Amino acid sequence: MNDRVSAWSRWVFLALPLIIPLIVITVLIAVTNDISLVQRASTAMILMVMVVGLHIFSGNSGVISFGSVAFAMIAAYTSALLTIPVEQKPSLFPDMPGFLSWIVEFSLPVPAGIVVAVLFTGVVAVIVGVPLVRLSGLSAGIATLAFLVVVQVVVTKWKAVTRGESTMVGVPKEATLWWALAGVVLAIAVAALFQVSRNGRRLIATREDDKASMSIGISIPKERLVGWTLSCMVAATGGALYGHYISTFSATTFGFALTFFIVAMLVIGGMGSLTGAVVGVLVVQVLSEFFRTLETQGLGPIPIIDFPGLTEMVLALILLIVLIVRPSGITGGTEVADWFARRKSPESSAS
Amino acid sequence: MVESDRSDQLVTHGLSVHFDGVKAVDDVDLEVQRGRITGLIGPNGAGKSTLFNAVSGFVPLTAGRVVLGDKDITGWSPTRISQHGLVRSFQDTRIFKTLTVLENVELGAMNQGLNGAKGRDFAYGILELLNIKHLALESAGNVALGDERRAGIARAVATKPDMLLLDEPAAGLDEDETAELSLTIVDLCRELGCGVLLVEHDMSVIFGVCEWIHVMDSGKTIAVGTPQEIRTNPAVIEAYFGKERS
User: Fold this and answer.
1) Which of B126, B93, B32 has its CA nearest to residue A208?
2) Average pLDDT over residues A218-229
3) Does residue A308 fall inside a structural domain?
């Protein structure tokens, strides 16, 4: 590799080793025509969009956030409100407040609804982010968790707009396996681009050493805000896609259970790398499916294990083991490109 | 940065830093001129590191002012101070270990708006100046201590500072490495036209490269002068060797 590696080639080495296998796996799953497998793969890839979104901020800044699911929820509800067919809206939202009555009068195509929802969520992310990015460690974790609780309460109580505790119905079910693939390819491409960009590298520097980064003129709040906003917008893409994939959802769909899964996936895979985000989703999803099958159907000679919450308990156990034994996750914070570089280096030194 | 915009001097007026009643730095007037290497010495606990941290914005002042060129930078954040041309290195290097040596230096170059190919070329130039160009693509966490110190200095230098504050750059280096580093510091000051404030325990470095020396003891200034004046100053000799020896 030429020692003057351009940002473009770094992006290629970072993103393509993740994107190409995902495309191949998706095509293979699609040709099987196994509906159950297609459903599981679609869900996994949509979750991957959210995990990659979380990685953009938490992975590059080292500041943990429990709030990314809140942004996924905001986008899912926003896109739903914009895309539910006009003829269904009056009956679904009879008490829509006057200042939002325009929402009942039109309906956007789903792709447009997702784009608008993601942009709107981006604006919310900036507003929330300005005070949040000044926090670190435990304070940041608690503040982001508090934001998730606030959004959940608002969604649950604001019946006129969100249907409250009732399920959101009538949402066009247009997202497919291919939409999920497109979402994850976009998420990885954006995350890789950010990682090799000026802002991304500055944010990584703040993760490595805050004092040293300040000493060379890096503004920590500014770099965190850029990463935070992008991170929330990618998570929002995942949320909007999820809404149009499952088509009926409520505030509990985007609650603590999903937050736990997303954070566990990133930590188990390795928070410090984009590869870790992708690997974490694959590992956790395969394990979850394995234990869910055990819980509900048994597996071959193994009988049904009638133990409610078995999957979550096993996941929590794995999370604990990873945190104790290998805090940097399965990938140890490295990227696929680094693995290739390491394998190549003995040859280059020999020559 | 236009040459005329560059700050010609760093001055502190009556700078004091007190911690819980302890006067770590007490009423210190310091002057660092651009194009000159100024040494800051003193026995352990003299207040050198606190003064260093206060000037670079990492520790709040109890009293006094810090002026860089024509700007009063008292109370500014470390980020803002470094963006205005006063940049420091760290005794424990604080290198970004998961990044390459080149990426560390490129981050410094970004401070003066140099990005992409321009930033990379500039960073390579700095690495060459510090004799570590061959380590450009090494992970910064894997290089030897001497090279790590050079990489830390290179990162600071890449910001093209008016005033460069070096915190014990020779700590942990052997005699040859220290001698080589001393020459490098002189080269840097000349090439970049910046002022250097050098905190160092190794007197061979201080007396070898500094044109002006500021001596502190128990938080106060006890002497200021040329290396020759400092060598023979009774207060300095007493601070270092005790009353009997003096």
Assistant:
1) B93
2) 97
3) no
* Whether the predicted pLDDT of A346 surpasses 50: no
Q: What is the pLDDT of residues A9-42, one digit of tens each?
A: 888 889 999 999 999 999 999 999 899 899 999 9
Strand order in the sheet with B212-217: B86-88, B163-167, B195-199, B37-41, B212-217, B220-225
Q: What's the pTM value of the predicted model, to 2 decimals?
A: 0.89
Enumerate residue ranges in chain B where pLDDT < 50.
1-3, 244-246
Q: Is the Cβ–Cβ distance between B162 and B175 less than 8 Å?
A: no
Q: How many Cα atoms occupy the beta-carbon half-sphere of A160 within 13 Å? A: 8
What is residue A9's predicted lDDT score, i.e. its pLDDT? 83
Handedness of CA A40, A45, A51, A53 (dihedral sign): negative
Asked whether the beta carbons of residue B159 and residue A205 sit closer than 8 angstroms, the reply is no
Q: Going by C-beta distance under 8 Å and a sequence separation of 6 or more, which residues neighbour residue B22?
A: none
Which residues does chain A have within 8 Å of residue B108's beta carbon, measured at their own beta carbons? 216
Strands B212-217 and B220-225: antiparallel
| Per-residue pLDDT at A290 | 85
Q: Do B216 and B47 meet the contact criterion of CB atoms below 8 Å apart?
A: yes
Number of domains in chain A: 1
User: How distant is the Cα of B233 from the closest Cα of chain A, in angstroms?
Assistant: 35
With 70 as the cut, is the pLDDT of residue A268 above it?
A: yes
Answer yes or no: do A216 and B156 touch at CB < 8 A: yes
Helices and strands of chain B, counted as H and E runs: 9, 10
Judging contacts by C-beta atoms under 8 Å, the chain B residues touching residue A199 are none
Residue A89 counted as domain residue: yes
| Spatial separation of the C-alpha atoms in residues B101 and A225, rounded to whole Å | 26
- Domain carrying residue A55: 7-255
A215/B contact by beta carbon, under 8 A: yes
Would you place residue A349 in the very low, low, confident or very high pLDDT band (cuts 50, 70, 90)? Answer: very low
Mean pLDDT of A256-260: 92
In this structure, is residue A111 part of a structural domain? Answer: yes
Tell me whether A345 touches chain B (CB under 8 Å): no
Give domain status of residue A274, yes or no.
Answer: no
Q: Which B positions 131-160 lie with beta carbon below 8 A of chain A?
A: 136-137, 155-156, 158-159
Å between B212 CA and nearest CA of chain A:
25
Using CA atoms of A70, A89, A178, A253 in order, give the dihedral in degrees to the nearest 10: 30
Of A201, A214, A217, the CB nearest to B103: A201
Q: What backbone torsions phi and psi does residue A345 show, to the nearest 5 degrees?
A: -60, -40
Q: Closest residue of A to B161, CA-based?
A: A216
Counting residues of chain A whose pLDDT is more than 70, the rounded percentage is: 95
Beta strand B22-33 with B9-19: parallel, antiparallel or unpaired? antiparallel
The alpha carbon of residue A131 is apart from the nearest alpha carbon of chain B, in Å, by 18
**B198, B40 Cβ separation under 8 angstroms:** yes
